[in-house]
Design brief:
Chain lengths: ~210, ~210
């Protein structure tokens, strides 16, 4: 099921709520109120209730949300209830950090392939993944990998995206500070660290 | 001036537009239409017009936006018209990537100090910044650094934030996958790579 009228901002917040629910579950909680969930992730209770209202009635008045049921629902909405394999392209400092990052598992995400141009890196094994030559990138098609993380230099970004898409990738997490031209069937989320940091001063008090 | 009624989402998009304007300026354009600006950054023209409408009338009908004037206005709104110094805490793979990242300058951001716990790293110079012992973190107060990037392990995150805030930091870009408890005067933007990736499958076509 695709909920096409759901605002992107709601989708952006669902993984945040998911983290709160996983935290609550770890603390042995069976139910959680929107207030407590909001507190645990730094959100607003009204926002949580509004976001969930797009998908139906998840809570019970006076009891709150069933942690296990809501976790399952959110994973289903985000389509991460089934495991999702991902490929990493670019194993420089950033790529290395991503490959070693332990936080993907709780979202059902798994980086199962990594590629680089540097002969010194090719063949090395990091976190159970052997780095391969980027010339072999097309082979991810055989593994039915639909997700990719791109941590390549800016001038290699569009070309890398083109190859990934040809190989069947439909979702790209892009760390190059550039806008990628992709067909409509492909979703790109660009993380531009400088751009995120550029928003901070706006919120800072003067002086 | 603080525009408190401006949606966070508009503030999120301003640096995106800024990148488009810098691109246009580099191409020698004096004016740019909302359509062309939208095309260059992958946004919607109506969204651009709506976002700018919060700040007054930036464009001229039939001419578009004056690139230089709009660049200046956006920088002023984001308070990055004056240069902003930042400290980096944690120089692992991710911190190293951040320290070497060339993209901060166009937003007037400059990482001028870096800290780590690892004795092997302390004293090393990366991108003109000498890595210092994290025990010296409090000294950033003397340099009037108000911005910080945190690339520390999760279990060190809250403590690091507390020290930073005590030393005068008011804006934190946080890469630890956790929610930081901070006073209201401090703005935290958390970048959780797994969380961003967890949104991708939602947008991907089935099958």
């Amino acid at each position: 099921m695709r909920y096409s009228r759901i605002p992107d901002e709601t989708i952006r917040r669902l993984p945040v709520y998911l983290r709160g629910l996983i935290l609550a579950s770890g603390q042995g909680k069976k139910n959680i109120s929107s207030n407590d969930l909001a507190d645990s992730v730094g959100a607003y209770p009204w926002q949580i209730r509004k976001d969930f209202s797009y998908f139906g009635d998840f809570g019970t008045r006076g009891v709150g949300y069933n942690v296990r049921k809501l976790t399952k629902e959110i994973k289903k909405i985000l389509k991460i209830n089934i495991g999702q394999k991902a490929a990493l392209v670019g194993v420089g400092n950033l790529g290395m950090a991503i490959l070693a990052f332990p936080g993907f598992g709780i979202y059902g995400l798994d980086i199962t392939a990594a590629f680089d141009v540097n002969p010194k890196k090719i063949g090395k094994k990091i976190n159970n993944v052997t780095i391969e030559n980027v010339s072999e990138l097309r082979k991810i098609k055989r593994s039915k990998i639909k997700l990719a993380v791109m941590a390549v230099p800016r001038n290699a970004a569009q070309e890398t995206a083109d190859v990934l898409i040809e190989a069947g990738v439909r979702g790209i997490l892009n760390f190059s500070p550039c806008y990628l031209v992709v067909p409509k069937k492909v979703k790109v989320i660009t993380i531009d660290i400088a751009m995120d940091m550029a928003r901070l001063p706006y919120y800072m008090p003067a002086g």
